[in-house]
Amino acid sequence: MNIINKLTIRHLRQNKKRTLVTIFGVIISVAMITAVTTIGTSFLDLMKRQEISADGEWHVLYKNVDAKQIDAIKKDGQTKSLSVTRNLGYANLDKTKIPSRPYMSVKGYDDFGFRQFNIELTEGRLPQNENEIVISKDIIESAGANYKIGDSITLNIGQRYSLLDNVPSDNLGQNYPFIIDDGKPGEKLVDLKAHNYTIVGMINPPKWEPTWGPGYSAFTYTDESKFGVNDKANVSVIVNTVNKSIYKHAEQLAQSIGIPQKQIEYNNQLLRYYGITNNSSLNMTIYSLTTIILSIIIIGSVSLIYNAFAISVAERSRHLGMLSSVGATRRQKRNSVFFEGAIIGLISIPLGIVSGLAGIGITFYFINSAIKQALDLTEGLKVTVTPFSMIVAIIVSAFTIFISSYLPAEKSVEGDGD
Fold first, then answer.
1. Beta strands of 204-346 (E only): which ranges?
2. Spatial distance between the Cα atoms of 411 and 25, rounded to a whole number of angstroms
3. Please, what sign has the CA dihedral across residues 209, 214, 220, 224?
4. pLDDT tier at 189 (50, 70, 90 boundaries)?
5. How buried is 182 (Cβ within 10 angstroms: 0-12 exposed, 13-18 middle, 19+ buried)?
6. CA–CA separation, 341 vs 315, rounded Å?
7. Average per-residue pLDDT in the chain?
8. What is the pLDDT of residues 212-225, one digit of tens each?
9. Which residues contact 5 (CB under 8 A, 6 or more apart)?
10. What one-character-per-residue DSSP string does 354-406 give?
11. What was the pLDDT predicted at 360?
């Protein structure tokens, strides 16, 4: 260590009170910067978890695929996990108190599908074969049907068919409400097939089930190993790496195994929180707000820290003058101020990051209930730390210290020759 740096450290030690005040000011600045970057990543994490809770976790959906295609998707290098599901159709309820919901919507899920799509049991157990079924408790509580666990039921399952010329039948899924025309049903079920089931459990209505949907949810078991040549199913895939290549890769995989492009669907609602959906402005909004807030913090912090360095330079003016008299160059004198900033930063940045994370964690603890209520969320904010957010916090903090020490460093060499 050269003599100038040694003198800088001795000056910091001799002026402990001012040094501690400077360190404390920088810690506050770094804590605020860390809090802002953490809020951004934590909010995106909240949105991801909320979307997964509401609609299940999946990235790519391949519709109407056969057993060979399912096997090929399983073996694909980008596939982390997948579920096999089937929309079996609708069955008329024998009794319903709500005319706009006259059906039971029957789907088949494999073991992972029940977990992936957050099927919540209230009593009983999940189906273990294709002759067992769980039904939404709303079928009993809202529709007034008289079912209980252990009952054997026969459901005539078919597809919705529109009786109106202006409503195409191929769009009649759960998101399309029951058709009523002039006070009478504007649709019927066709291609009915009888299925015998034993009720083995009751479930909460899935969070993703639309309240305007015409059918109450019911789930049976789907075993892909028993698929025949003509059996088709939907495959919901969670990929290993979520980035913009997901679209190209899915299209290439589909083309290689004979799946038409129109049978591919992406979970854009979830993917946009990863920042890889081009038509979403949410991430840009968050990043813009973060940048604006960081800019305000930087301006305020520079004002505070600059004064501390300016005072330090003023106090050291005699020492800096002595250094000039013994041959210290402008660069060496300027670097002595930057060295002081580096010492302050090495101490303050780690402490500021820890303080910022602790502070935002305490804040989340107290505001989570209000956030949930105000935004109608089921998930709460969690402190989410990513390498990117920490790198941004460190870089912005270092930049703030550099700017704060730059002008005092220039003043320290005013009047010196080259």
1. 215-221, 233-239, 264-266
2. 22
3. negative
4. very high
5. exposed
6. 15
7. 86
8. 889 999 999 999 88
9. 336, 339
10. HHHHHHHHHHHHHHHHHHHHHHT-SS-------HHHHHHHHHHHHHHHHHHHH
11. 93
